[in-house]
Write a structure and sequence with these properties.
CATH topology of the largest domain: Hypothetical protein af1432
CATH architecture of the largest domain: Orthogonal Bundle
Structural class: alpha+beta
CATH class of the largest domain: Mainly Alpha
Order of helices and strands: EEHHHHHHHHHHHEEHHHHHHEHHEEEHE
Number of domains: 2
Oligomer: single chain
Number of helices: 20
Number of strands: 9
CATH superfamily of the largest domain: Hypothetical protein af1432
Largest sheet: 4 strands, mixed
């Protein structure tokens, strides 16, 4: 297989070094579609909570590639016959490109715009793009193979599990990277030991049973990161304000409102008609420019929400029990008395996550489960062996908060 004459190396704060040996990977990194990920933050609006969270989808994607490269290199060095060596390049490409379709502020806006970044990743891989042309240099069907890994429809399944399972390169990189850049210690775990104990076995990736405690530590890190970082109520407040901005802009667009600032491709974005070329023009700098300009719009709702987001005057929050409903009649009355539209200034937000989903025979989980490999070659799903993992299966994270503008509404 053709390799670069001189290995390329990226200095990385998480993995120390990221090594590129294949011309294909180097060419993909240098496409305009992949370079755009430098302008998309990995953690969306979390920089308003953790000021160091300015890292990009570009650096995360390189990290996922590097972990995948290390796993495959270990399989090849040890001569594991259960590893399909011909899948190496498709796995490395899918690891690098798995987040290619992320838009501005990543997951924060997806629910409002009904956009799915994985679908957009596949569209860009299969469309008229530099990435597609580079992939087609391998073979005519190579873009389709890479897209199928990202879409989780590829066979063999072992290729998908490297990038999308409950112990995959994607999760392992973002936990370590997000912990590093937010400055918390919760996301740290022994990556080297987990990678050393990974094995290809009967069409899936498994862990030697001696690595169970390292995997427990990884799952506990994930649990803590959800509680302390991903579900942080201040971050959720900033996401809610951003979502309200987008909802208001979409509604104004439908109503024929004359925006003072609406450069292409903003109209197409708000109308949900973006082409691949238009989508690639969208990044966080573009959207933040729009938000800054919309601070001066005549529409009082849009301008106020934009000023709140831009200057970090976010909504206050009150914790609620998962089954608790606020007094909506009172809240809406207070909103209207303050001259505010309740649809844009009130939100009861529920967040739910399961740190680990146990395997249930007959069900095909979206994320493949973790199996332990014993000395006799037998496989056991990890929750059957670990009390720690069983507790995580039965203790889902469920948080609920009421968000409101405390500078305009007094609840006490």
């Amino acid at each position: 297989m053709k390799r670069l004459e001189e290995e390329k190396v990226f200095k990385d704060p998480v993995h120390k070094y990221i090594y590129v040996q294949d011309p294909l990977i180097w060419d993909l990194i240098n496409t305009r579609e992949f370079q755009r990920l430098r302008r998309i933050r990995q953690l969306g609006t979390s920089y308003l909570t953790f000021h160091g969270a300015e890292h990009s989808r570009f650096s995360h994607s390189l990290g996922v590639y590097e972990i995948t490269r290390r796993i495959i290199s270990q399989f090849e060095r040890n001569g594991y016959t259960d590893w399909p060596a011909e899948e190496r390049l498709v796995c490395l490409s899918a690891a690098l490109l798995h987040d290619l379709g992320h838009g501005p502020f990543s997951h924060s806006i997806e629910p409002v715009m009904r956009m799915n970044h994985e679908q957009w990743s596949c569209r860009l891989i299969l469309g008229d793009t530099e990435v597609n042309r580079v992939l087609r240099e391998v073979s005519d069907d190579f873009p389709e193979r890479v897209a199928a890994v990202i879409a989780k429809t590829y066979e063999p399944e072992i290729a998908v599990s490297l990038i999308s399972s409950q112990l995959d390169a994607d999760r392992m990189d973002y936990l370590l990277r997000d912990a590093y850049f937010t400055g918390v210690n919760y996301g740290t775990f022994d990556l080297d030991r987990i990678l050393r104990l990974m094995r290809p076995h009967r069409g899936r990736i498994v862990i030697k049973s001696s690595g169970m405690h390292a995997v427990e530590d990884y799952l506990m890190s994930r649990y803590q990161m959800y509680i302390q970082v991903y579900f942080h109520p201040v971050t959720r407040s900033s996401e809610i304000v951003l979502q309200k901005i987008v909802r208001r802009a979409v509604q104004l667009m439908r109503d024929g409102y004359a925006f003072r600032f609406l450069l292409p491709p903003l109209p197409q974005w708000l109308q949900g008609t973006l082409t691949e070329a238009e989508y690639l023009r969208l990044d966080e700098s573009f959207l933040q420019t729009a938000i800054a300009e919309w601070c001066g719009e005549p529409d009082p709702v849009l301008s106020d929400l934009c000023r709140r987001f831009l200057h970090r005057r976010l909504f206050q929050y009150v914790p609620l029990r998962p089954d608790e409903e606020p007094d909506w009649d009172k809240l809406r009355r207070l909103c209207r008395e303050a001259g505010l539209d309740p649809a844009y200034y009130l939100e009861a937000d529920t967040l739910y996550a399961v740190p680990y989903e146990a395997y249930r025979p007959g069900e095909r989980n979206r994320r493949l489960p973790i199996f332990l490999l014993d000395q006799g070659g037998g496989l056991t799903e990890i929750s059957e062996c670990s009390a720690v993992v069983r507790s995580l299966c039965t203790a889902p994270i469920e948080l609920k908060h009421l968000y409101y503008p405390a500078d305009r509404i007094a609840l006490a």
